[in-house]
Amino acid sequence: MRIALFVTCVNDLVFPGTGRAVVRVLERLGHTVEFPAEQGCCGQMHANSGYRDEALPLVANYVKTFDGYDAIVGPSGSCVAMIRDWYPKLVSGADAVAARTYELSELLVDVLGVTDVGAAFPHRVTYHPTCHGLRMLRLGDRPYRLLRAVRGLELVDLPGAEECCGFGGTFAMKNAGVSGAMLADKCASIVDTGAEYVAAVDNSCLAHIGGGLSRTRVKAKPIHYAEILAS
Amino acid sequence: MTGTGNIVARLPFPVAARKELADTQLRANLRRATHTIRDKRLRVVGEVPDWEELRVAGAAIKDDVLARLPELLERFEAAATAAGATVHWARDAAEACTVVTDLVRRSGATEVVKVKSMATQEIGLNEALEAAGIEAVETDLAELIVQLAGDTPSHILVPAIHYNRTQIRDIFDRNGLLSDRARTDDPPALAEAARRHLRAKFLSAKVGISGANFAVADSGTLVVVESEGNGRMCLTLPETLISVVGIEKIVPTFRDLEVFLQLLPRSSTGERMNPYTSLWTGVTPGDGPQTVHIVLVDNGRTDTLADEVGRQALRCIRCSACLNVCPVYERVGGHAYGSVYPGPIGAILSPQMSGGGANRTLPYASTLCGACFDACPVRINIPEVLVHLRQIGKHPPAERAAMRALSWTMRDRRRYAAALRLARRSAAPVRWLAGDRIRHLPWPLSAWTRFRDAPLPAPESFRDWWTRAHG
């Protein structure tokens, strides 16, 4: 199977470890990963902020770059939701490539049929499902199943897990006060679990949560779950 | 025609929200109340095996109504008139208030009793009546509390959601509803005080004013759904009844109520069925009000109807389920939205009905988390409409320039790679000085670092690693 990695712009620039982790997990499972260098940003920030015209060339670039792959994996719930839910509405002919774009847990569980990826991570971890993973992609228990299969990992429930962390892209800037109040509650819930790590499918939510945790000097660390699966 | 009245925010949302965020008591009250209703709603919705089918049916009926609204409104007018009611049409809030005020004046009454109604709040009827020397008494308990406090509602269904029982006791006490012995914050005692106060009003009022949850086109029937029985008192005791109804409240046939009377109570109060459902059709000699007026209000609804994406907001049955699940509403309450329609539905309804002004900031008052769409009993895709409104709205020039530049850079491989290199190099000295976490960024990024540290670009981008590792 020809699997292409769509690393996403935030991961490319700020969290390259997440992309490396996806490659490591898939190669360990015996797959070959390709990285088409023409790829850029999915356009989510533009589209969600009301810049449809500015998003369209980015959408077109994605469709052109990834056409022809059997599966495209993106380690970001919100970028994959943008591609799957919005692309077919934005440009004609995007349906096929959008339907073959998977969030990592979907690729592993649904396409490759794996829940145990052979990882070991002896730590106490809590999981924040993220809004797009939860309500747009409906990832359900897939990430939990993958994490539960990790050796040594103690998965603890996050109180109010389904509540938004307050990131929301440009919302964090335009309504910084409300976003900060939501973040404070999310951080308090994470502290309540006593976890060493808070995992999620999206580094943008994690950058927001991690920024809040670091500001309040909480020891819990944000981690993309791909990095746990690659350990 | 553009809507007017209490749907126009005076302050931009971020400014209004700042004040509400500072009120920790308000936030605690809201959190407790919304979570209680939220859990109740989830429980009773879970009992209905065909909930999804009901939602789809509700949306389909409303979409059909919106597709042939003029025809159905005319049918409603004909049926209501034939049953003995008088139908009036109002283009905006001011016109609706004038119609109602004139009708009350002609009746000679100086006091009217009111059933809680979003439409009358929307048009600012209480203020208009007061200006005409007519006292309007709200008879819904929570609405009465808000009225006695000299406040405005903070929630569609639970107008006094922002008060706790001690605050309510003080409001009643200030207004002389409590005797000295009864200065308690026991809810049954407070309810009893309100009941005594209202009973006298019900028995003396010559005019009742209501809204309607639904208006049946075929029969000219109006429907009010409530929990306290005060509505039924208002609808049956006075000689004259004036009902103010938004034009989108139409359902085609009596049978369609079957769907909505299941969707509404479970979504709004988390009850299987509301205690009182009143239906009235025109005038019945010797029974109930002998003069019935119906004021059909547009107030920006036809403007909203003209927008293909945004019109789904008119499916709204005012259940407030979206408010109760909204993380933004939970932090700031209803007042920050500056309109009688707060929360997610308000963020799409108010800007569409009233156009422009401070309402332009409302489509951004959301993280697009999607909880509202999941909760909506008529499947209004609120996130979709929010994004649509952001698209057709005006953008700040600096933001637009930045978005264009980003789009231009990211659509081309070489430009994109060069930008990544530039960002990485600029970050290097910062990392050397400050480490991995940045505590202060210059404006406009300071909005980020007010509440959270910022991450830095990694020392090596993913694509550079890939080239190095895979050649």
Provide an overview of this structure.
Chain B: Residues 313-380 form the 4Fe-4S ferredoxin-type domain. Chain B: It comes from Phytohabitans rumicis. Chain B: InterPro entries: 4Fe4S_Fe-S-bd, 4Fe4S_Fe_S_CS, FTHF_cligase-like_sf, Helical_ferredxn, LUD_dom, LutB/LldF, LutB_C, NagB/RpiA_transferase-like. Chain B: GO terms for molecular function: 4 iron, 4 sulfur cluster binding; metal ion binding. Chain B: Keywords: 4Fe-4S, Electron transport, Iron, Iron-sulfur, Metal-binding, Repeat, Transport. Chain A: Residues 3-84, 125-209 form the Cysteine-rich domain. The complex is a heterodimer of chains A (231) and B (471). In chain A, 51% of the residues lie in helices and 12% in strands. Chain A is globular, with a radius of gyration of 17 Å. In chain A, the strands form two sheets. Chain A has a four-stranded parallel beta sheet with strand order 2-1-3-4, sandwiched between helices. Chain A has a four-stranded parallel beta sheet with strand order 6-5-7-8, sandwiched between helices. Chain A has helices spanning 9-13, 16-28, 44-48, 52-66, 77-90, 95-99, 104-111, 131-136, 142-148, 171-174, 176-193, 203-215, 225-229, and strands at residues 3-5, 33-34, 71-74, 101-103, 124-127, 154-156, 197-200, 221-224. Chain A contains 13 helices and eight strands. The mean pLDDT of chain A is 96. Chain A is α/β, with parallel strands linked by helices and 231 residues long. Chain A has two domains: 3-111, Rossmann fold; 124-229, Rossmann fold, CATH 3.40.50. By secondary structure, chain B is of the alpha/beta class. Chain B folds into two domains: 13-302, Rossmann fold, CATH 3.40.50; 413-470, no CATH class. Chain B is built from 22 helices and twelve strands. Chain B has helices at 13-21, 24-46, 51-67, 69-82, 93-107, 118-123, 125-131, 141-148, 165-174, 187-204, 230-236, 257-268, 301-305, 321-325, 327-332, 343-354, 371-375, 382-392, 397-410, 413-434, 446-449, 462-470, and strands at 86-90, 111-114, 135-138, 207-210, 214-216, 221-226, 240-246, 250-251, 276-281, 291-297, 437-438, 454-455. Chain B has a six-stranded parallel beta sheet with strand order 1-10-7-4-2-3, sandwiched between helices. Chain B has a four-stranded mixed beta sheet with strand order 8-5-6-9, with helices on both faces. In chain B, a hairpin with a 4-residue loop joins strand 5 (214-216) and strand 6 (221-226). The N and C termini of chain B lie far apart (63 Å). In chain B, 51% of the residues are buried. The model of chain B has no long low-confidence stretch (mean pLDDT 94). The interface between A and B is large, with 64 and 64 residues.
